[in-house]
Amino acid sequence: MNISKRQQAYVEAIQTHANDIGIDLTTETFTRAELRLVSMKLKGKKWIPNWITHDQSRRVGRGVFSIPEAVLAVAPGQEDSDDMEQDAVEVPSQIDEDMVVMAGA
Question: What radius of gyration, in Å, describes the C-alpha atoms of the chain?
Fold first, then answer.
């Protein structure tokens, strides 16, 4: 989807401030409250841009908008060391839990 430079600046603001304000960038839907926080960070005002609020195709529900341009996804082959490290976290298996129970008996 082609977007203007102003629209791209707002999308980049969503991506930049997501961690600060608790926005999940793995989903393309954003609430009015989340977008107001982004606007406050970007412009110091709570107003959400009209290209989001007035575009009926972006409305998912009451106060929820679709902005797929803001989704951060790692394409296959584009992983960096941080992505690989996160994927390598070991999850305890059932065998480990059974061993703990047996050790305590």
Answer: 20
Q: Starting from the edge strand earliest in sequence, which strands make up the sheet with 59-61, in order?
A: 29-31, 64-66, 59-61
Residue 24 neighbours by CB under 8 Å, 6+ apart: 18
pLDDT in tens, 41-64: 999 999 999 999 999 999 999 999
- Residue-wise pLDDT tens digits, 60-100: 999 999 999 999 764 444 445 544 444 444 445 555 555 55
The domain segmentation of the chain, as residue ranges, is 1-75
Copy the structure tokens of residue 66: 């679709």
